[in-house]
UniProtKB/TrEMBL annotation:
Keyword Metal-binding: yes
Listed name of the protein: Cbb3-type cytochrome c oxidase subunit III
Domain Cytochrome c: 39-112
Classification via Gene3D superfamilies: Cytochrome c-like domain
Species lineage: Bacteria, Pseudomonadati, Pseudomonadota, Alphaproteobacteria, Hyphomicrobiales
PROSITE patterns assigned to the protein according to its UniProt record, in alphabetical order: CYTC
Secretion signal, residue range per the UniProt entry: 1-20
Species for this entry: Dichotomicrobium thermohalophilum
GO molecular function: electron transfer activity; heme binding; metal ion binding
Length: 115
């Protein structure tokens, strides 16, 4: 009985990362044109100021949320974190559309980003 349970649990754990990673892929691959488009960056900046700055902004330190290091991030990583959440950060999948989450990503990775 233990071995059947252990095998089932192991199979679920192995499958989970693949499912989670697949579930949070952007609907279209990020392109340099998308990431550098001023409209996308400005739209992402507005959403950032409206929602994200509360926890990730300069006045939120120390404590509320980790300080972001966008120079280390790839677009898919940022999109996945915004979509799925991480630790205490909630998922924004039900709040923002795919495009809006992609625009937030564009802003976070832009030279205009200011937490």
């Amino acid at each position: 009985m233990k071995s059947a349970f252990t095998a089932a649990l192991l199979a679920a754990v192995i499958a989970l990362p693949a499912y989670a990673q697949e579930a949070s892929k952007p609907p279209e691959p990020f392109t340099e044109d998308f990431l550098s488009d001023a409209e996308n960056i400005n739209a992402g900046q507005e959403m950032w100021a409206e929602q994200c700055r509360h926890c990730h902004g300069r006045t939120a330190y120390p404590g509320k949320a980790p300080k972001l290091k966008p120079y280390k991030y790839k677009p898919e990583f940022v999109y996945r974190r915004v979509t799925d959440g991480f630790r205490k950060m909630p998922s924004w999948e039900e709040v923002y559309t795919d495009l809006e989450r992609m625009q937030i990503t564009a802003y976070v990775l832009s030279d205009d980003f200011s937490p």
